[in-house]
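Notebook entry, structure prediction.
Reason for the run: the old model in the group folder had no record of what sequence produced it. Starting over properly, with the input documented here first.
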Amino acid sequence: MEYDRIRTFINSFNADDTGLLGEIHSEALSASVPIIRDETREFMKTLIAMKRPEKILEIGTAVGYSAIVMAEAMKEYAASSEKDGSDEAVNIISIEIDEDTAEVARKNIADMGLTDVIRVLTGDAAEILKDIEGSFDMVFIDAAKAQYQNYLDLSMQYVHSGSTIICDNILMGGEVLESHFHVEKRDRTIHDKMRKFLRDLKDDDRFVTSIVAVGDGMTVSVVR
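New structure, fully documented this time:
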């Protein structure tokens, strides 16, 4: 596919992760753990450099790779609290449904020296999002795609005008481009939900939204 050639070309300009972060990246790929793609990583760094978020909410931690990438970018570009060890010092709250995966993430975060920057909460994001505290400048949604609309709506109580909400993997490996009947029957429900989510998000006057062909596709929405 031509797009694969474009991705390869773009990534030829991107430096690979090094050191411990490179090991986390390699181990995740070897274990088939879904993590953000290289071009997505670079785009997220650019968004953080542009927006300078002080607080980020992440839905879908996996092994902590994306949270670590965002935290490192925040350390470089964003203001941070001086109240080390307090709730105010936690810049990223990340939610992971699987306890074993969350423990791997916590270890990776600790090994990177970022336990005072990233807090991993374990459980169903749909429940956790009903009862957390704080306001967030950026929300990164990278979890169960069938729940994207629910996660987005629940996140709205924690954002403000100017907050950025990013949803990853919205192209579903290109499957979302296909018509309903060209998709395997077992995948049609999630296919239709993602199509509806994208249509509704673009029509939602709470946001200014772009659908971006970066990685496996992303939506970038700014709260009005």
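Summary: Residues 188-203 form the longest helix (16 residues).
The old model has been moved to the deprecated folder.
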